[in-house]
Amino acid sequence: MVTKEFFRQIYKHRGAKCLIWGLAMLIFLGIYAPVFASSKPFVVCYQNRWYFPFFKYLFYNELYTKKVDIFYNLLMLTLPLLILIISFVRKYVKSISLFFIFMHLFFFFHFTHNSIESFSLTSNSLKNATSYSKLESHLKNGDFDEFSFYLKPMGVGYHWQENTLASASTLGAVRINGQSLWAALFFGIRYSLTIALCATFIAFTIGLTLGSLAGYFGRGVDLFIGRWIEVWESIPALFVILLMVSKAEASSMGWMIIALALFSWTSIARIVRLEVLKQKTLAYVDVLKGFGYKPKDILLKHILVHSTTTLISLVPFALVGAITYEAALSFLGLGDRQNCSIGLLIDEARMLYPMQPELFWPPALVLIIILVSLAWLGDYSKKLLQHSDSVI
Predict the structure, then answer these.
(1) CATH classification at residue 29
(2) Among residues 269, 274, 277, 275, which one has the least CA distance to residue 229?
(3) Same structural domain for residues 230 and 359?
(4) How many CB atoms lie within 10 A of CB 330?
(5) Which residue of 12, 76, 137, 229 is surrounded by the most CB atoms within 10 Å?
(6) Could you report the per-residue pLDDT of 302-352, keeping only the tens digit for each?
(7) Could you tell me the CA-to-CA distances from 16 to 20, 131, 156, 267, 379 in Å, in that order?
(8) Domain co-membership, 193 together with 301
(9) Is 388 helix (H, G, I), strand (E, B) or coil?
């Protein structure tokens, strides 16, 4: 089955379509979290001068102290540009899509490296100005009557790291540390999905490499990799992950990604091996060998390309496992306590449950929606592959 036809068949299913849109909405809330949870107005007219606090502070590392936030804030601005460029060159996307992806990544990291410091200096210099100091004091105190015009972001009026206890206009529940629960939940989607996506990407890289080598070359290579997978699966993964994350003091988010990836690649490698073994027995592989194609080209450009739909069907289950592990580790108190992942929010709510149930249900429902949606999508794509005669 061609990959486009595979996605089309999934999207035709009414239940799968609803799940895809639900996940897309949650991802949208995560990427554009500052739009829904920020205390900085988009635009303000103060003393006949126009200011744009939201955009000035979007890369200010004293407000957005996490590098993940800076990354997503820049992605929030550059992603529409990439989509717009690709939409204009849709006829030529097959030949130059990689070029635009690399161009986008280059622009992304180059702009991040050169602009974060300049944005920070701009914010600091503005703070030293008298007019902007008054503006900041009015924003901090919520004195919006002093402005002749202002446009605030929709949703929660606080950043997730700002204390809301001193304000009487706090929207929704408040965490133990005084921060807004809804603001932390919007940004928590960022952290949970980032850990899951990075861990899944690393696991797929390892599993795809070892599984394809074992399936294509067979014999000694297959025996060695197969025994190595069996040995690796005999290790108690949960205890080793707990040990690795608990020993990490500085970059616990990075350690969590590495720990999750190291113990989730084995199942991917097994399935990839079986798929490569299946593809290797088909006639087109013998034809390619007869034409003198190198094993590397046969494996990368043909066998793995024909196995794309099978690999795509593995992604939801890999994400489910990574998100579940991340939530469990954060719930056990082994995540970054200065973070706001969904598991950490559930752990905080557990301490005050049932006295304050409003702290528990929002993150719990978001986690349930993400896990159930991914599991159902993975199950439906798996059934679609099994019952389709056109799958190669």
Answers:
(1) 1.10.3720.10
(2) 269
(3) yes
(4) 29
(5) 229
(6) 888 888 888 888 888 889 988 888 888 887 777 677 778 888 888 888 887
(7) 6, 53, 30, 24, 10
(8) yes
(9) coil
